[in-house]
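Quarterly update from the structural biology core.
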Amino acid sequence: MTAITLTSCEVFEIDNYQEPSETIHGAVVDAATGDSVLTDQGSEGIRVRMTQLDYSDNAEHNPDFYCMPNGSFQNTKIFKGYYNVRVDGPFVPIVRENEEGTPIIDGSQTVKVEGSTECIFKVKPFLKVEFVGYPTVSNGQITAKVKVTRGVSREEFRELVQPMGNYDESYPNITDIQLFISYSSSVGYRARDERWSSSIEYAGDTFEELLGTPVVIKSTKGVAIPSGRHVFVRAAARINYDTPVGSGTRRWNYSKPMEVIIP
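Predicted structure, tokenized:
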């Protein structure tokens, strides 16, 4: 039996790997308007996935991270190297393959990350969600008007997504509108107060006739928000389609947040 002895210097050298310090940053924007694609800050938001291409022949992707609510992203702990970068969110998938795995379109980016590297992704959001006017308050209950329009028509959605296979005409159906309320300015699904946040569900294509029309949504009935408090509200809506495909995660398109003072 042979004994192996390592000096303290050798142990230090083995364990002395340089920490990653390169930065990647960027944003996800509407290809048609240039507007930021607003999102949630968490796993229901826009996912950023990076795979280092010069590390090995069978490289696995790095740990995923997520965009900030305004659609921008930044990671300051990346090793220097070449990466494939893709984003998945409430927009037409930028990487699409047919059922046989043959690429149809690949909107991912291959970049060299060194120093500070920028990536801008131009996408087709499913929906645009916005408040109409300013929310009102009565007896501690918030009432808001929300308008939802399509960023991609049903016809264009079918044209882009159907070649991936297993298409369902229910995919573009709008399934729900959410009113998220929180003391936090990053209000969203991940930062909401369940006492006051509310939703309206829609079956089938019943929301179709409401597209472009202000829809009234109120905070939870009978649960008053305390007087004198400042809260933030955001509206969100989503379609019956998960991204990435097969993930089971249906991601919301969001409005900008608004601050509401409770009298």
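The longest strand covers residues 141-150.
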